[in-house]
Amino acid sequence: MSTADTIPVHPAWLPDAAFAPLGSRRVRVALGPDAADPVAATVLDEVRRATAAHGGALVTDDGPSDVVLRWEPDAPAAGFTTTRTGGVTSVVARDAVGLLHGLHALVRAGEAAFGADHPTVVDTPVAPVRMLDHWDNIDVHPVMGQVERGYAGGSIFYADGRVRDDLSRVAAYARLLGSIGINAVAINNVNVHRTEARLLTDGLSDVARVADLFRPHGVRTYLSVSFASPVVLGGLPTSDPADPDVQAWWAAAADRVYATIPDFGGFVVKADSEGQPGPFAYGRDHADGANLLARAVAPHGGTVFWRAFVYNHEQDWRDRRTDRARAAYDHFAPLDGRFDDNVVLQVKYGPMDFQTREPVSPVLAAMPRTRLAVELQVTQEYTGQQQHVCYLGPLWSQVLTFPLADGATRDVASIVAGVPGPGADAPPSGSTPTGGITAVSNVGDDEFWTGHPLAQANLYAYGRLAWDPQADPVALLDEWIGLTFPGADRRVRDTLHTLMDGSWLTYEAYTAPLGVGFMVDPGRQHYGPNVDGYEYSKWGTYHFADRDGVGVDRTVATGTGYTGQYPSPWRETYEDLATCPDELLLFFHHVPYGHVLHSGRTVIQHVYDSRADAVDVVTAWVDAWSALRGLVDDRLHARVAERLAEQVRSATEWRDQVRTYFFRKSGVPDTTGRPIH
Ligand code: GCU
């Protein structure tokens, strides 16, 4: 047995000890007609496991109980209701999935779930589809590795050129996802390479094995597919959506998928993006392309998640008129109303690419007659690559609660909930759910799942915010700490809170300033600083720093016109220097270094100060964490300590490169006299 086989996988937020309050009680489970559902078996397993560990009992007859989990035909269509009467806490739900989610809500609440004053709570998920996308490859890609933008080892699904024989990690992962309400997972990279394309055909029986493990946790399986499949897999001369043979090929492919996996979720598609094939090759648009696939899966109740991440990745940096931020809106907004009902347009939260700070994508406000899902990135491509502590709950919360549309009365959460926009028809009752939320997963075959053990909190917070976007991300952090480190010394909880609570803002403060983005190193897969790394590249991600100023003019008046893609009041707010928020200033405007921010500081002094202050913050974390030695698991302690040392090194490099770069460009000294190199 290799060492790797002997190290137990970390239980994440489901250690046995977290089940003590529930597991020490008598738990009656009444499953009704859902008793045969595979999720019902999971509910029973969870109760058995918890009660066996903590001295309670599973009650399946009418005997006395302290807790009841009960099927109830009049319960909410999704989610569950919790009540406390006569000394008994009851969870009722309309199906086994709702009971599973309710059971985990009791676990999260701990003893509070059994207090006399526990109020009645109706808990229903906001986004109907809550998905994780894996950018996993079967083969190990020469540049990207096995998991594209993966920072936690190899894939949990694939090894040695095929789907793993031993999928026990997938089963454990499915349990984690089910416990936080995730209900969809796409198991391969959106960049679909040759081997992975075959999952749709020759690989189906293996995909079915994976789906069998997700199903008992209420999670449906999806595949990323190549738009060129009819050519690549089917040997047809074309993938043109208008070609009847192509349509027939997709229909037959979908029939085979559903014959093998009847509850298959559908397809995720990256088309005409960064070199992936798409409908443009045939003079068709994205609605034609998406509807082609949607019609193939529609008879089976399937959904197509079609990505809006489409832009010119062969841009000439000399061309100042093209603005990558505009691209998704320019491509997709004119297509509003043309997508079939079972297409969900998957829109990255910002117009660029998962930066530490971006404005919310205007596409989300521009397509009231299209089903939309917002796409987040749990894997930390641009936010420290799971070497740095960067708790992203506050970023996602800001995105989801942002009042984007209709005179700022509709927030992003209502859009992903599928609340019909102005001019849109309400979906007929009983139709497939609208909207959704999706994110790129951060797990791999690492012992701690996520490389950096504290990055587990991001996976947790994503699931919880997908369920309830109004949840307080800081409260979710404490919830995660309480579950993952049950019974831990107060110093452990306080230190974790201090390290993680503001870590996104700290990360932002030592990296690219004021919303300008990027400045990452192309030679190191976007890790670490390289201020001009993308400045003269084809990728459309520029900061335009010169001796006088920095930032991208995206105004209607003098710039690329991007601000005009927003509805009021945002188009005016962002257009005007006087109202543009500081944290997005350089995203929207090119300003002189002496421009005074709302904070009262000049842009250049802000760049100098915040980078230096942020490194001081990170440096203090090292000692704080070191004081916890012996109070948390030794292996976990060592892993976090090693990553914190790297975070200090990397943050210092960021600080010194960014400060020095802007001093050399501007010649303006740092008024504090702190060293510049
Ligand atoms: C980013 C990322 C790529 C990924 C792409 C996408 O550009 O760096 O690795 O393929 O996003 O979202 O499709």
UniProtKB/TrEMBL annotation:
One of its GO terms (cellular component) is extracellular region. Residues 120-449 form the Glycosyl hydrolase family 67 catalytic domain. Its EC number is 3.2.1.139. One of its GO terms (biological process) is xylan catabolic process. Residues 450-674 form the Glycosyl hydrolase family 67 C-terminal domain. The keyword Protein transport does not apply. InterPro entries: A-glucoronidase_C_sf, GH, Glyco_hydro_67_aGlcAse, Glyco_hydro_67_C, Glyco_hydro_67_cat. It holds the Pfam family Glyco_hydro_67M. One of its GO terms (molecular function) is xylan alpha-1,2-glucuronosidase activity. The active site is at 274 (proton donor), 353 (proton acceptor), 381 (proton acceptor). Keywords: Carbohydrate metabolism, Glycosidase, Hydrolase, Polysaccharide degradation, Xylan degradation. Belongs to the glycosyl hydrolase 67 family. PANTHER family: ALPHA-GLUCURONIDASE A. This is Alpha-glucuronidase.
